[in-house]
Structure formats: structure tokens, C-alpha cells
Amino acid sequence: MSHNTRRSNGLAFHWIVPAIFIGLPVIGRPLILYATQDTVQFTALKLERVANRFEEGAKYMVFTPNETFENTDVLIFGKLNSSDLYGKMKEGATYKADVAGLRIPLLNWHRNIIRVEEVVPSKSSTSSSPSSP
Length: 133
Known about the structure:
It is elongated and about 70 Å long. The strands form two sheets. A three-stranded antiparallel sheet has the order 1-5-6. A three-stranded antiparallel sheet has the order 2-3-4. The protein has helices spanning 2-35, 82-88, 123-126; strands at residues 38-43, 46-51, 58-63, 68-71, 94-100, 112-118. Helices cover 34% and strands 27% of the residues.
């Protein structure tokens, strides 16, 4: 009896450890995304498409003076238009964006852009008014 018990415990261990390592990113990452939503404003210095040889498709990177963001589809937010957002963004433009996630270098995670809109400078702030005599 004890031989069979030891064997079944070992079998359970072999299933539990992989389940944790697979389940944590699959379940944990969406929870992190949902819990870390923020709104930021940035100027896009560089936009880049990065192909991933392990996954189908690509992710889009947005480099700013203070942080690098990724722009990928996120099912939990119903965001399936990362290619469209990337196509509309321009280097040198300023954006207000809803972002979610954490920067975790070990896992190569960046905060993800969920929604973005260009911030157009108002005419009053770009034109200088003549001085009154």
C-alpha cells in the first residue's frame, strides 16, 4: 500500500508544479493587467514592430523618454486593434493613453497601451500673442 501511495503523491507533484508555472502567467497576468490600470501622457520617440518567433503575430513597442510601452491585443479589455493603433501613431507626437500592467524585466513585460488618443496642442499655447503697447 505504501508503495502505491508514494507513487500517487509523486504523480500529483509532477502535475502540480507545471500547473503552477503555466497557470500563474495565464491567470496571473490578466489579473495584474486589470488591477494596474493607469492614464499617462507621453511623447512617442520611436515606434517599432517586434516579431516574436515563439508566438504568432507581433508586438508593437512604443519608446518614450521615461518608459517603453507595448501595444498588443488584450482580450480582458476587449482590445483587438493593436495593429490599427500602431498604424495611427506617429513618432514625435504626444499621446494620452490608458495603460495596464507592470514592467517586469525578468519576464520582458512592459505596460500595455489599451487606448490612445493624440494630444493636439492648443493654438493659444503655440502662438505667441503680440505685446500690448
